[in-house]
Specification:
Blueprint (H helix, E strand, L loop, with lengths): L2 E3 L21 E3 L5 E4 L2 H12 L3 H6 L4 H8 L3 H13 L6 H29 L4 H4 L7 H5 L3 H16 L5 H14 L11 E3 L4 E3 L2 E2 L2 H11 L8 E2 L2 H6 L1
Parallel strand pairs: 6-7
Antiparallel strand pairs: 1-3, 2-3, 4-5
């Protein structure tokens, strides 16, 4: 591993981004000597993955108690859903001021993670078993959590990875359609489903033009959309 001098402000996932002379996620530094060692691509992805849920778990579960969070996060999928439903029904939430404070911190982390992830992708390409090792943490959740304004510059770079065959087109299309709907624009690829509270059923994606959708899907390697709803642009943007 290559080494370089740096000055550490503090330790931890967040404070590493404030280390002078060291990149936010791609180096580990010794607090005593100030010497940095470069992380592997996989280690960098793991560091990003850990901070992606740093405050989000507390907000979601409605508790900042680390022991309680550890127990909740250890639940299997079925128990997790049941407990989340119970807490939601009982209105278990963090103090509003604390929740607001944690969101400010998590959004700052999300933005730093997006910047660092895209820097890594530009350097190494979209991660694969060959470049990041088998079982590497998927970057997709980080991209789902990125701020809408960041998607503006991230999506064109992801499209390059898709067209090069390094990134699966499915998550790209889903992230693209989420951005479209956030902007009040109809989804293009038909990757966003919606829940109808009246019928308690999942609705097929609402699109404007099936021919345009299938052309766009073919361009990035997706199969034609089979189930869909044709609607007017205003309704499709909202649903």
């Amino acid at each position: 591993m290559s080494k370089s001098a740096c000055v550490i402000v503090a330790l931890g996932a967040v404070s590493l981004s404030m280390a002078y002379g060291c990149s936010a996620q791609d180096q580990r530094c010794d607090q005593q000597s100030g010497v940095c060692e470069s992380l592997t691509y996989r280690e960098s992805l793991e560091a990003i993955d850990r901070s992606d849920q740093l405050y989000r778990d507390a907000i979601s579960w409605g508790t900042a108690d680390p022991d309680e969070l550890a127990l909740l996060n250890a639940l299997d999928d079925e128990a997790n859903m049941a407990e989340w439903g119970r807490r939601n029904a009982e209105g278990i939430k963090l103090d509003p001021e604390l929740e607001k404070e944690l969101w400010v911190k998590q959004i700052a982390i999300d933005r730093a993670n997006t910047q660092e992830l895209m820097r890594l992708i530009e350097q190494h390409g979209w991660p694969t078993d060959e470049t990041a090792g088998e079982g590497f943490p998927s970057p997709v959740p980080v991209l789902i959590h990125m701020q809408p304004e960041d998607a503006q510059w991230v999506l064109p770079k992801l499209r390059i990875e898709v067209l090069a065959g390094r990134m699966d087109p499915d998550p790209y299309a889903m992230i693209y359609d989420r951005k479209q709907q956030h902007d009040g624009v109809p989804q293009l690829y038909g990757k966003t489903l919606n829940f109808d509270p009246k019928t308690r059923t999942v609705l097929a994606p609402a699109i404007v033009d099936i021919d345009a959708t299938n052309r766009a899907r073919a361009e990035i390697g997706l199969e034609p959309l089979e189930e869909y709803r044709i609607t007017d642009p205003q309704a499709a943007a909202g649903r």
